[in-house]
Amino acid sequence: MFFFESIPWYNVVMWFVVFGLLIGLNEIVRSSKKASIFMFMAVPIALTPIWFFTADPEITSWFHWVKVYSALAGSLIYMVIRFTDYHKKHPWYLMLVPGILALNIVEAVVRESQVGIMGFEGMVDGMYYISGGWNYVNAVAGILNLVLICGWVGIFATSGKKKDMLWPDQTKLWIIAYGVWNIAYVYSCAPGNAFYSGFALNIAATVPVLLWAKGTWMQNRAQTLSFWMMWVMTFPYFFAVGSTFNVSVSYNPAANWTIALLSLALNVVLAVWQVTRIVKYKLNPLKDELWKDTNEYKEINAMREDTAPEREAVIGKAL
Fold this sequence. Notes:
Order of helices and strands: HHHHHEEHEEHHHHHH
Shape: globular
Number of helices: 12
């Protein structure tokens, strides 16, 4: 196969198990404050000593430690928006949402650059790596994706049965560009479980946005990533090389180049489109929402029950 070696039927089944569990757990925490507190506060506190005393430095790199706690930090930050009015009284708090997203992208860009610079060729942190120019190409795509984060001033929380944090200005194109970039990153920088943490994890956060929970991608991404990283930290060998459920990438440079170039192309298209709108409508990407006239934005924004002019005014002054 082009991207992966052979994929036995039981690995296909496991992919759908991982995918289903991520979506299922995400729906549980979407519908319950108690479940959110349990999953993102109680469970990590209980598991941290286990991670600290059992972590194998041969398979658990610095990136795993940073990623698990940054994902959990994002989930906790978003819980404050979902379940309290703190962000309404203190509008600056909304800046933390793009901040934690930017931090996660920076972490991946640094790791991607490290893999490229170090010229990995063989076993590193329990995985087999190959490095190449695709690492730098995808790092550039990640930087572009970071710069193109926009419209965070319009983030709000729903007041229905399910407490969601919605980001109307986070378009499907940005989400897809991010997803392909992240898949390319995992494919080259965490190849041992790219089949699951690359494809299943990214798709699990995106499917609800496309079908039944529009505007929730940022929330879904943090929550599903938290679930995944807690599992990886607790059971690091479950999908590792040698496991029955491990699916090896093909280690075909052409595959790495293909996905990295697709990642860069999508983010360049997004950049051109976004800059065009900024110039055409004379918008400030640090203060304005860029897509307010689109049907996609209006559909999500229709779920807003509060009004945001006061918050935007305060944020504008802060900037």
